[in-house]
Amino acid sequence: MPASIPRPHYVDRSGPDRYTGSHVQSAETIELMRESSRIASDAMYTAAAAIAPGVTTDELDAVAHAYMCDHGAYPSALGYRGFPKAICTSVNEVICHGIPDARPLEDGDLVKIDVTAFKNGVHGDNCGTFACGDLDEDSRLLSERTHEAMMRGIRAVKPGREINVIGRVIEAYAKRFGYGVVRDYTGHGVHTSFHSGLIVLHYDSTVYHDVLEPGMTFTIEPMLTLGDPRSNVWDDDWTVVTNDRSRCAQWEHTIVVTPTGSEILTVAPAGLAAV
Ligand code: MF3
Ligand code: CO
Ligand code: CO
Q1: DSSP letter string over the chain?
Q2: pLDDT in tens, 104-129
Q3: Model-level pTM?
Q4: Which atom of ligand 1 is nearest to the CA of 77?
Q5: 97 CB less than 6 Å from ligand 1?
Q6: Closest atom of ligand 1 to CA, residue 83
Q7: Does residue 265 have its Cβ closer than 6 Å to ligand 1?
């Protein structure tokens, strides 16, 4: 990392400070988040374009890392609670938090790329699911419908509603296809803090009652599985896999609540399809 790029406070520490501020962000913070979010999205799609049989996830990491550095952003994952790489790459039955490594991707792999960028003191966080070579139909549909589940969650966001509306619509949609909904990992408030403490469940539950207000910024990032969504973590302390080794897809956007609904901050670059 070039010394000129400011890094988040948690780098070289065991973890971040607990965030105690408001869940509602100022217009200035939201403006700054547009740039971080745009860089995170562009870095994700740039890395995704490099996916091919024989390419390693370390190479995808290098592409995204270089993109963020070139655009004055720090890769938020690097040094977050000791995470060793710039991005997460999670293949097939890996649900999330996969660590890029030297394993070459194979034809038919389902590859999730999760990129968070930090610039001007704020983060933008996004994830997408991409095919390596020829993907089987079940995996293709899983990714497409996980994207649709995320979009339904985003469209359900309106000021005055409780945050639990999001999980309700995502789970209802996933159930139509018999997909598992991962419960062990959630969406989260994101802004000056990477994970602010605001929790966004992707399943139907009323444990969280936060009322949505204009200016709140958070992620929606459903993880849907072809089989059982229950998970365990490898002894690298990061890699999360399905217990039954069934495949998983994930899509994530950072959004802001507006007076009439919501707006996506991690917009896909022009000319690149979302799925
Ligand atoms: N970007 C992930 C999320 O969506 C978090 C990754 S934490 C890391 O919240 F340390 F693994 F990078
Ligand atoms: Co996130
Ligand atoms: Co993410």
Answers
A1: --TTS---TTTTSSSPPPP-S-SBPPHHHHHHHHHHHHHHHHHHHHHHTT--TT-BHHHHHHHHHHHHHHTT-EETTTTGGG--SSSEEEETTEEE-PPP-SPBP-TT-EEEEEEEEEETTEEEEEEEEEESSSPPHHHHHHHHHHHHHHHHHHHT--TTSBTTHHHHHHHHHHHHTT-EE--SS-EEB-SSSSS-S-EE-SSS--S--PBP-TTBEEEE--EEESS---EEE-TTS--EEETT---EEE-BEEEEE-SSSEEESSPPPTT----
A2: 999 999 999 999 999 999 999 999 99
A3: 0.98
A4: 12
A5: yes
A6: 10
A7: no
